[in-house]
Write a structure and sequence with these properties.
Enolase-like, domain 1; oxidoreductase (chains A, B); 5-stranded parallel sheet; 3 domains; FAD/NAD(P)-binding domain; alpha/beta; homodimer
């Protein structure tokens, strides 16, 4: 324990920043460590991932999404300064320039240790009409609030969602839940480009089955407005889609302007680069985590940008432990993600076919259909599992799942197997839980693994 | 490919036997391999695990539980002889003595390769009244049919289930579904002795909450009958429990009389001992699998008897591959099991505290409460996870879960981690699927792993 009191400054008071603050506080008393956190917005520690469910009505209140309020943080001796934006990081001077947005006042404050948790900003293409009333992003609680207010004010019943990734499909569900006619305009060949197109096709079909109009291979060229300047349609090169409200779900980019200006190392995707302990590379006393960093992909051996609350929380936990004098690491990700559109569950982990090709791997891909429960058990429903394995070695490379209840979280078995470097042959012997309400006697993951083993063997018998 | 036609004889035409037959047939044509299967009962390839759901009414028809009928097997060139019991195995003569139960005719038939898949028989204590009308086991489809006929004939509304393991709790659910008042009489301190008692306690409380009367620490001394000789109550040393029907759920023992008489090697639990390829130890041409064998427990390094359909099917698959000229293995189990009582899900894998003690391991045990979904998401419900880790190494030893929807199959993550030999520290970094409808931002397994890490560290700081 140091006898000199240290000062920890945190930029951004959401998942990563406040997890780091809380964990550091657990390890170090206010006498040992002063913690100052700056947040330019109105909220702390909220679940951005929950916004679609709030808009859709499954979650009642905005505050349900707030895990911990500013007051709760302050009770734990964290000097949290809301509506205060950090304008500059002076690395040599170990200080940051902050601006109190209410008072309009700027001031420098010093740090011994700095955590950058500035998150991500949504992609917002510079299209004609993009700023028209009725066009909404859904990145922040404020965005969600603005959208809900629009929906409550508007008579309209037609929504166009731009983008068919996680946010896009979740917002399509939300608008269906609100009784809207929904069109999803998607640049890709199929929705969910985090899946291979054959699996994305299943999502496409299910969404069409839910009454959602899916427009693939389409680039939005402009947002059309009415005489009042309000949105009335979304235009692509080939068509116009009438819209009372437009929701942008085009993904996000790391919010790293501050870091860039401070000369901190950024990766190819614009995210901060850190070491295993979430320390910014080359900097002893600066940590970063959450949506503003790139994460190491254990499968490809490369850095990626993945904005996901579960990573952000882990990063915060790791940073807080290290800042607090312990030692913790974040080894990387295998690329697991799960989502749903109404009762359709969508999950993936590891490499897609195009990732495997890009990595120069020779692989086999198999797809099987099975059910979530024993076929005779009530509620048994189809599930499609696609599995990739390396040729020769049989090493598991990736799994994609599309199905009904109980399908999505099955991807976790594959995520652990990937982390452990298992072969598909080893996977066929996995002792997974079986009872008729939970699984067929061969769990779908085992069925896929068996087929993958056969494919690996068959591929070995062919000339390479 | 051999030019001499071989003859495969299979004793027992259920999960293991017929999986072996089917897989062998896939690999070897009828010109290469003749397959003869003997079944003393009336059914093939059925899901015994489904019987409670058939009795409870979730599954409509007996035949829903039959995966493949005798006719379907015969269409695949399998010479299936129903209602034919094998009376003796002559290992030296490579032949078996069969008895056609209909014709009353006995005959010897030779084999080149033999598969023993004789299953298990239910424990049936020799108590006064145990054979009275109204006392039922639920091991076979015939048992299930007999019970359902009794229930349809009987006016009564009081059921006593003897035993509180998987079958016991599932049958308690089934009888609740049928509108009965249910009492479970259990020898153990808490139900589900495959869990530690603290977790069993949660099952106890939930079952009580469902209106099931739980009687623990109680040994049945006799079955009391009325003047007609029909069951009227179950007696323990201390009390009598009125019963219109009694269901025995006391577990099973390997059915290995034939094997024992033939001099084949049996283990401490009475099951056949096999090698990794499911070959009976020391015998070149005899395989065995399913409920009549002991399986290798990867956690304890010892043989156990676990009657479970998923193992039986894997064994059959492995045997069929090996008999058919390929090579496959069954490395062992980590002891995963999952079950439910109404909406309470119960799961376990690996070692309990008493197993860890018996193995001479020094361990820490932690228990956490979390939810199946994000706390704010509709349907979020409590889940309790208990995790054991080895002191010093931090190696995961076991996980037990009791909770609502989505709790049970989470045990699979731990099953894979056990198989891979992961530490709880490694588990904290697992990239598990997260979205609010599927998990809190920290999956309950991760929360448990974090607490286990802290416990391992704290234990290290204490004198050992």
């Amino acid at each position: 324990m140091s006898s000199t009191k240290e000062r920890l400054v945190i930029i951004g008071a959401d998942a990563t920043g406040m997890s780091a603050a809380s964990q550091a506080r657990r390890l170090r008393s206010p006498e040992e460590l002063e913690i100052v956190a700056f947040e330019r917005g109105d909220f702390t520690s909220y679940s951005a991932c929950g916004i679609p469910y709030w808009v859709g009505g499954a979650v009642d209140e905005r505050d349900d999404l707030v895990a911990r309020t500013p007051e709760e943080h302050r009770e734990r001796a964290i000097d949290l300064r809301m509506r205060t934006e950090v304008l500059r990081i002076d690395v040599r001077g170990r200080r940051v320039l902050a601006r109190d947005l209410e008072a309009g006042k700027e001031y420098w404050t010093t740090y011994d240790k700095l955590v950058i948790a500035t998150g991500a900003r949504p992609l917002r293409p510079s299209l004609p009409g993009i700023d028209a009333p009725g066009v909404h992003g859904v990145q922040t609680l404020g965005d969600g609030q603005a959208l809900i207010e629009t929906l409550e004010r508007t008579e309209g019943r037609r929504a166009v969602v731009v983008g068919a990734g996680y946010i896009g499909v979740e917002m399509a569900e939300a608008m269906i839940q609100r009784g809207y006619d929904v069109t999803v305009v998607n640049r890709g060949k199929e929705p969910m480009s985090t899946l291979d197109a054959d699996m994305g096709r299943l999502v496409h079909e299910a969404m069409t089955g839910l009454g959602i109009e899916m427009v693939n291979d389409a680039e939005v060229t402009k947002i059309l407005t009415d005489d009042d300047g309000r949105v009335r349609a979304v235009a692509t090169e080939n068509a116009e889609y009438p819209a009372d409200v437009v929701i942008l779900g085009l993904g996000v980019r790391p919010e790293t302007e501050l870091a860039r200006e401070a000369g901190l190392p950024l990766g190819d995707h614009g995210g901060l680069l850190t070491d295993l302990a979430m320390r910014v590379r080359g900097y002893e006393d600066i940590w970063a985590g959450g949506d503003c960093v790139e994460v190491f992909d254990l499968m490809s051996g490369r850095e990626r940008h993945i904005a996901l609350g579960t990573h952000a929380n882990k990063h915060g936990q790791v940073i807080g432990s290290n800042v607090g004098g312990g030692y913790a690491t974040f080894p990387g990700v295998v690329g697991t993600a799960v989502s749903k559109v109404c009762d359709l569950e969508i999950a993936r982990t590891g490499l897609r076919e195009k990732d495997a090709r890009a990595a120069g791997l020779r692989y086999v891909a198999v797809t099987i259909e099975s059910t979530n429960r024993a076929g005779y058990y009530p509620g048994a429903a189809l599930m499609t599992v696609k599995m990739l394995a390396e040729r020769r070695t049989g090493k598991l490379l990736g799994v994609q799942i599309v199905g009904r209840e109980g399908a999505g979280k099955r991807v976790d078995v594959a995520a652990v197997a990937l982390t452990a470097g298992m072969t598909v042959e080893q996977m066929t012997a996995l002792d997974l839980g079986y009872a008729p309400p939970f699984s067929p006697v061969w769990d779908p993951i085992l069925v896929a693994a068996r087929k993958a083993v056969a494919a690996v063997r068959a591929a070995d018998e062919q000339p390479s």
